[in-house]
Amino acid sequence: MSARGITALLTALLASAPVAAQTIAITNVRILSMGRAGEVARGTVVIRDGRIAAVGAEIAIPADARLIDGKGGVVTPGFVLADGRMGLMDVSQVPLSVDRAQHNPALSAAFDVSQGLNPDSVVIPVARLGGITRAILAPDYDDKGDRDLQFAGQAAVVDLGQRPDMVMRPRVAMILELGENGAERAGGARGAALAELRATLADVRDYARRRAAYERGQTRDYRLSRVDLEALVPVVEGRMPIVVTVDRASDILEVLALAREERLKIILDGAAEGWRVADRIAQANVPVILDARLDLPNSFEQLGARNDNAARLFAAGVTITIKDGEGGSYRARELRYDTGHAVAHGLPYVAALAAITINPAKMFGIDDRVGSLDIGKDADVVLWSGDPLEPLSQPGAIFVRGIEQSLTTRQTELRDRYLAKQPLGRAGAP
Predict the structure, then answer these.
(1) pLDDT tens digits for 231-269?
(2) Which among 3, 157, 210, 386 is placed 20 to 30 Å from 394, CA to CA?
(3) Is there a contact between 23 and 48 (Cβ–Cβ < 8 Å)?
């Protein structure tokens, strides 16, 4: 690259970098706080030192505040994406750019995605432009060589302010897939996967009680390596939830029974047929992460998928979180569209907004920091031109921890480049 090109690149990077936190007052807006302030028809949100300082209709604006006139728009908390991938992959067809999965047979539960993130991923600004300011990044099973892997690994919470220290909290959940894929990895049957899981949990409990004996080589052989056993100790002690991917109603009931017997803290992921056993899920007080647009039988375990799954689960009393149905990476910005789809199929509006803000924050233990516009919380704030679940609405300002973020992405740069008038080449193309 020429010296001029390097200078231009550095200038662009500096121009797009977020400025330091300051005191900001966003006025003349409808506020959907998802917190104690509830909905404010016309009010003000004050941000100071990276945190929410005030929310309400009659707010004294600090003399040193930078004023942003919301012009009747809508302010919401930043969205929290469950089951994300941004920062873990850039080009899926380039293996060396993918850190969401691994296929080392000696490593399973101990795989920690927080240690391989790319905060400069071009996917992150795109997701942020969809209102997403935090994400739970979850590991996945590799497409090859993972038949012996029981667990995908451990998830992490990150902020999308796009800085080197984007990890907010590592190791927030263990990721496990059962159902059809889990059965295949266990030897071809669901019963084998469940038996293997019970045996593993027994190993972990035995290891936790007899660490000293393990060091002396005086324990029985365990199915997993030491690092995997250590990673699972918080799970068997109920301090770390397991996110279990299942779809079929009967599989859901088996997982609920397993959690009750083993005293595990679980979160269901997928639950395409969750509506069929919604009352049982509610009785078990188990939350669900779901794809609100899944309505086709992509497999035998999803034969009962339907558009109103979210609405039916909510009506039964289940805490739900809506995830991006396209894998949590390249099209994560569509999270709000998927949520609007759930509203169109019966989910109450406020419940839908909770499903992408305060609910995922509570599920993963970060509701003390984000998920609502409450005084003292991190100022993850988005100013929208209109209803945030309406595709035509656009963000006018995005703040992560009180720092205003650029609204420029790789896509907008390409759009502007190719919309600009260009001299025609010899073939008549720009």
Answers:
(1) 999 999 999 999 999 999 999 999 999 999 999 999 999
(2) 157
(3) yes
